[in-house]
Amino acid sequence: xxxxxxxxxxxxxxxxxxxxxxxxxxxxxxxxxxxxxxxxxxxxxxxxxxxxxxxxxxxxxxxxxxxxxxxxxxxxxxxxxxxxxxxxxxxxxxxxxxxxxxxxxxxxxxxxxxxxxxxxxxxxxxxxxxxxxxxxxxxxxxxxxxxxxxxxxxxxxxxxxxxxxxxxxxxxxxxxxxxxxxxxxxxxxxxxxxxxxxxxxxxxxxxxxxxxxxxxxxxxxxxxxxxxxxxxx
Length: 233
Known about the structure:
Elements: H1 2-29, H2 34-46, H3 51-62, H4 66-80, H5 84-100, H6 109-123, E1 127-129, E2 131-132, E3 139-143, E4 151-152, E5 155-160, E6 164-166, E7 171-176, E8 181-184, H7 187-194, E9 199-204, E10 207-212, H8 214-219, E11 230-232
Parallel strand pairs: 2-5, 3-8
Antiparallel strand pairs: 1-6, 3-9, 4-11, 5-7, 7-10, 8-11, 9-10
Helix pairs in contact: 2-4, 3-7, 4-5, 5-6
């Protein structure tokens, strides 16, 4: 009789415990609204917006809780077909940003370089052989978020200020005319530009060139660069 009562009591306790566990799991599953994350990732990456819209999207991105940020970065990886090394780098950058309580684009460059070195060792990827851009006299270009139309980049190539770059050479963008300010057409590209205090540029031959780094693009969640998403003034 005592055994039967014990079994009945245990069964009753299990019912309540199981219900609590199921409720907890359901609650955890509701932390991330995947429809919202998918929509935000698409708008952040592809939707061409003016200043107000860009600021709102970046604020949404920077307000994500840790689980939402992980899901958001994963969605950006999926949308752009990120490579395995890009995925690993993105994941580590995301976790570092979460641990420091800052957006990925606000991470210290030395910390990001440590991640790059670790991934290089893990994936055994060779450094890229780059055409060296040694512009001599240069100009400082500044990022800008503006409602004005600007001049869309006319092209780009992959060049760097050194012969070798792990993970890919930097991106050199070409703009017709003499320009002093660079602006993104989407929130993602605005975020990439905003990660720089200034950008290395040069005015020559009726063109303005601007050099932007590969890793900072990935910090902003850009894994496949499209020069038509940039404009200049």
